[in-house]
């Protein structure tokens, strides 16, 4: 007899799971009302058949089903590889652009369509892609994840890439707002500081967001301190998330925090700040969903301490990120 799904609105926390199959601890965590989504990593993948079964099990737990996400940008950030197309790094489209401005967007579109359709086929709802960061200095963490160092060229390529995702039936999630390309530091390991003014950032990093705002359904925040603009990192900043992203840019989709266990978020939260405080600050600032990855102990602390009442408004907003079950036919670009 099929076990009935639990009726639970989607909550504001994205967590991960331990391995190739769900453990009892995973199931307990995923049935917490504050959870709304699961992010998968390479450790969760062995084959298409295996990951499709894992995702089906996760989605069978609740109604509405938990959202499933993964980082499948291409290049060095691709979690599922065997039996999947090995995708080029986004910078390759920028290199192509320098040689052929007509062919490069077509290549970006086709790669995005392949990425999205292969993920949807196994049950993934969305990839955290594309990277909107426009580099203005050498950056190990962004590097070839950036489409182009020129904002106009990046916007053209990003638009084509997003069209490919949409054609396959997947939403687009832009990251890392307002931009991680102006710092050399890696926010996984430190709190980078970007000393540019808001005018400089508007003229460079924000251009893709402003021009493609109607094409993106989600935005992920940067754990970077823009100390000439605000005293808080964007993840904790109502200035960045409300004044700039919502009001100035006009974005009305879902805002995700980057992983709150990253050092940039920890440093910005203070030495003695808890994961509960970090998540609460992000939500108060304007994040709809917060990520806690690779630390099940912290995920449990957050789920126990987070002040959150399940509600249909947030659940409906998050549910709009579900992938289309029957993707439309791909159309030609160019």
Which helices and strands, and how do they pair?
Layout: E1 6-7, E2 13-15, H1 24-30, E3 35-40, H2 48-59, E4 62-63, E5 67-70, E6 72-74, E7 77-78, H3 91-99, H4 103-122, E8 126-127, H5 151-168, E9 173-177, H6 198-203, H7 207-212, E10 218-221, H8 238-249, E11 254-259, H9 263-269, H10 275-285, E12 289-291, H11 296-305, H12 312-319
Parallel strand pairs: 1-4, 2-3, 2-12, 3-5, 5-8, 9-10, 10-11, 11-12
Antiparallel strand pairs: 6-7
Helix pairs in contact: 3-4, 4-5
Features:
single chain; 334 residues; alpha/beta; TIM Barrel; eight-stranded parallel β-sheet; two-stranded parallel ribbon; 12 helices; 12 strands; 13% strand; disordered C terminus
């Amino acid at each position: 007899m099929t076990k009935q799904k639990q009726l639970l609105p989607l909550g504001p926390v994205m967590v991960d799971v331990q391995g190739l199959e769900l453990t009892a601890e995973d199931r307990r965590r995923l049935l917490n009302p504050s959870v709304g989504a699961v992010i998968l990593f390479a450790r969760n993948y062995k084959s298409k058949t295996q990951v499709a079964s894992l995702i089906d099990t996760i989605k069978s737990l609740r109604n509405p089903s938990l959202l499933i996400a993964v980082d499948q940008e291409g290049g060095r950030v691709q979690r599922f590889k065997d039996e999947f197309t090995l995708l080029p790094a986004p910078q390759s489209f920028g290199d192509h652009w320098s040689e052929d401005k007509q062919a490069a967007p077509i290549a970006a579109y086709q790669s995005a369509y392949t990425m999205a359709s292969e993920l949807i086929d196994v049950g993934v709802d969305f990839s955290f892609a594309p990277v909107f960061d426009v580099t203005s200095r050498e950056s190990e963490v962004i590097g070839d994840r950036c489409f182009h160092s020129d904002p106009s060229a990046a916007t053209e390529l990003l638009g084509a890439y997003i069209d490919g995702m949409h054609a396959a039936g997947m939403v687009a999630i832009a990251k890392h707002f307002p931009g991680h390309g102006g710092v050399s530091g890696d926010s996984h390991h430190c709190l980078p500081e970007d000393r540019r003014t808001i005018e400089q950032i508007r003229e460079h990093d924000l251009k893709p967001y402003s021009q493609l705002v109607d094409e993106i359904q989600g935005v992920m925040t940067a754990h970077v301190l823009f100390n000439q603009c605000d005293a808080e990192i964007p993840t904790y900043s109502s200035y960045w998330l409300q004044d700039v992203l919502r009001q100035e840019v006009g974005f009305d989709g879902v805002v995700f925090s980057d992983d709150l266990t990253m050092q940039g978020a920890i440093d910005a939260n203070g030495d003695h700040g808890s994961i509960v405080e970090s998540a609460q600050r992000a939500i108060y600032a304007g994040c709809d969903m917060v990520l806690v990855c690779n630390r099940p102990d912290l995920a449990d602390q957050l789920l126990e301490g987070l002040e959150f009442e399940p509600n249909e408004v947030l659940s409906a907003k998050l549910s709009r990120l579900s992938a289309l079950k029957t993707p439309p036919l791909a159309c030609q670009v160019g």
